[in-house]
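thought: fold this chain, then report.
action: predict
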Amino acid sequence: MKKYVILFCVCLNLLSCGSANDCDASAENRRTDECLLIVKKIPSDTDERFDYRGTNPITKKDCDCNSKRSDLWWAKYKEHIQIGDTIIKKKGELIFNIHKKDTILSFNFECDGKVYK
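observation:
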């Protein structure tokens, strides 16, 4: 029985330490994504993914902001996004911005209560 308690404590300790590493790795992974988009099409409300479509404000070409790494992070802010808004998430940064006509909403990446910038 003591073996199992010790094993459980060791596993619990490893899991708690691994969480910070996972958050740090997730943050670094998300830094590589970029989204520059003037919103022209809003996906369905039932979709948990971030599948906005529109025009790149720099190139003026049609584009989307699909990302397997960051779409669940970005999807948290769907309720704030409307057609005509500009979404900006620059490579190397961990800030997701929604530019409206008179306001800019900025959201930092957060993991396990830690805010990443």
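thought: worth noting. Residues 2-116 form one domain.
final: tokens above.
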